[in-house]
Amino acid sequence: MNADARGRARLRMLVAAAIVITAFAVGSDAHADTLYFANGRTLSVKACRVDGGVMTVTLRGGGEATFDAALVSRVMPSEVPEPDEETPVGTATAAASAPTIVLDQAPSGARPYASLIESVAERHGVPLGLVHAVVQAESNYQPRARSSAGARGLMQVMPKTGAELGVRNLYDPASNLDAGVRYLKSLMGEFELDQALAAYNAGPNAVRKFGGIPPYRETQDYVRRVLANLPVRP
Fold first, then answer.
1. Are 135 and 141 in contact (CB under 8 A)?
2. How many domains does the chain divide into?
3. What is the per-residue pLDDT across 147-190, written as a single tens digit (0 to 9) for each?
4. Residue 86 belongs to domain spanning
5. pLDDT one-digit tens code per residue, 17-40
6. Is residue 103 part of a domain?
7. Which of 64, 118, 122, 138 is catalytic?
8. Which of 49, 122, 167, 213 is most buried when burial is the number of CB atoms within 10 A of its CB?
9. Are residue 94 and residue 120 in the same domain, yes or no?
10. Gap between the Cα atoms of 67 and 43, Å rounded
């Protein structure tokens, strides 16, 4: 598998099932692997396996954790395996409870146009948290934003797309959100989530051409940014 293919595979996040591990487990047996996460963290585990893009690891402190394999950039044998450490009865292991990405959850804290975004998302049946994540990545909630390519408004809708959806004033927050959410919903009907986001950025033809997220740095960074904006629930 070439580097571009590996990069695209890592980006295929199964968001509904994704679990992010944020702390280290304690203890190990004679064998251990070290996971290197894309966010720079590492985690030493007893063992790991991948099935259908989902990685399951056996924690050194006992038990298992499951998360999207796309979060891991590489797995290497631990250079210095650590001995097992007994966990006192009645105490928790150092393995953190893993927060889960929740598409339908609004982000924490006050956000501009929150009521309007909630209304449009509910009307079109698109997850609220996802709409916020796209708005944040596209315009950071600036209704007058305009890209060098001519995309406009909160969801950076192109005039041609807006016209196809019957929306002319893309600087109007309500109209822009309506067009952007409808367009995003149509893409989600054809593609998996990460590919739908790539199509929102680069166009559906590019995703069809490459059979997945195109090997464009801008698009790959965009998908990562939107996914990073999604709210999590501990």
1. yes
2. 2
3. 989 999 999 999 999 999 999 999 999 999 999 999 999 999 99
4. 20-98
5. 333 333 333 333 335 677 777 666
6. no
7. 138
8. 213
9. no
10. 13
For residues 27-52, b (16+ Cβ closer than 10 Å) or e, as one string?
bbeeebbebebeeeeebbbbebeeee
Task: Give me the residue label for tokens 């739908």.
Answer: 196
CA distance 143 to 95: 42
Nearest to 230 by CA among 35, 75, 99, 43: 99
Q: Which long-range contacts (CB under 8 A, 24 or more apart) does 193-198 make?
A: 193/13, 193/15, 193/130, 194/11, 194/12, 194/13, 194/15, 194/223, 194/227, 195/12, 197/134, 197/222, 197/223, 197/226, 197/227, 198/222, 198/223
**Annotated catalytic residue 218:** no
**What is the CATH number for 85?**
2.30.30
Same domain, 70 and 157: no
Same domain, 126 and 224: yes
The reply to whether 109 falls in a domain is: no
Which amino acid belongs to residue 127? P
Question: Hey, how many other C-beta atoms are within 10 angstroms of the C-beta on 189?
Answer: 8
